[in-house]
Design brief:
By secondary structure, the chain is α/β, with parallel strands linked by helices. It has one domain: Vaccinia Virus protein VP39 (Rossmann fold). 29% of the residues lie in helices and 24% in strands. It contains 9 helices and 11 strands. The chain starts with 9 loop residues before the first strand and ends with a strand.
């Protein structure tokens, strides 16, 4: 992300198993990969980085298996309304309806809400089962929801006003490549919305300390070999530095609390402190494409 040489400008944080680790990972059977942190921008990643030949292999499963809570399939009141409000504010006045691209559409709830808000919307979804479920539910049309990955997708250059990567970038092999390709589809001055896991999440730091006390070198960051297949965790500096290289500026930064079931009591207890110290679970950044390279 920041261009720092790897692995010279990185340090080992710990190990991550290919399954949920719980409170005593030493008793688990499995394989582990090393988690490293970039000294230049704080980006966390696995090294070596385990990836499938195609990203859709991870997600070619029934949606009910990936999202086990049936409530996830319904659109809750106010869903994505804050993001639409921010996008309109950052874009300013436009002639005609803004064109939007939803990358990694999943169940297409964002696609649907953007369409209801007056955007001309296209989507990308590599999982055949997720795409089929979204179309069945009436959240997207078959012709506007492309059955491909970002790597194989094709759109006209300088076409979209707004592109969203909500909970997608952390799953992709190369965030640098993904951002550059998305920027090529964005008009000068257009907005990229990204929501990713924060590398500074406070409960993760506390759980890492607990693992150290137990005499292990495991960490709770990432999940590169099991659902939800997070390959990266980011900091705002990751985007500030990458923007200098890729041709965008960081227009706005926010943090969202998020939740993990077995850590819920700890998260509720720490929420005021996380809000104060900007160590919430989710990092949200709004990027503006520069008018000139």
């Amino acid at each position: 992300m920041c261009g720092a040489p790897f692995p010279e400008q990185s340090r080992v944080v710990g190990k991550r198993l290919n399954s949920s680790q719980g409170l005593n990972p030493r008793e688990k059977i499995g394989i582990a990969t090393t988690v490293v942190r970039c000294n230049g921008c704080g980006l966390l990643c696995a090294s070596p980085l385990p990836i499938p030949p195609q990203i859709e292999i991870h997600y070619d499963i029934p949606p009910e298996s990936y999202w086990r809570d049936p409530k996830i399939f319904a659109i809750s009141p106010g869903y994505f309304s804050r993001e639409i409000e921010m996008a309109r504010m950052l874009l300013g006045s436009l002639q005609g309806p803004p064109r939007a691209l939803d990358i990694g559409s999943g169940l297409c709830k964002t696609f649907y809400i953007l369409q209801q808000a007056g955007f001309e919307v296209w989507g990308i979804e590599p999982s055949p089962t997720f795409r089929e479920k979204a179309i069945q539910q009436g959240y997207a049309s078959e012709e506007r929801l492309k059955p491909c990955s970002l790597e194989t997708a094709e759109f006209p250059p300088n076409y979209f006003h707004f592109i969203t990567f909500s909970a997608v970038l952390e799953h992709l092999y190369s965030p640098d490549y993904a951002l550059r390709k998305a920027l090529s589809w964005l008009i000068p001055g257009g907005i990229l919305h990204i929501e990713v896991p924060s590398a500074r999440w406070l409960p993760a730091k506390l759980l890492n300390i607990y693992y150290r006390i137990r005499g292990t070198d495991y960490v709770t960051h990432l999940s590169p070999m099991h659902p939800p297949y997070h390959l990266y965790e980011f900091t705002p500096k990751s985007f500030y530095r990458h923007g200098l290289r890729a041709g965008y500026t960081v227009a706005h930064v926010e943090y969202r609390p998020g939740s993990v079931d077995f850590l819920r009591p700890l998260i509720l207890l720490l929420r005021p402190l996380m809000h104060l110290t900007k160590t919430d679970m989710q990092l949200v950044v709004w990027l503006r494409k520069k008018s000139t390279p």
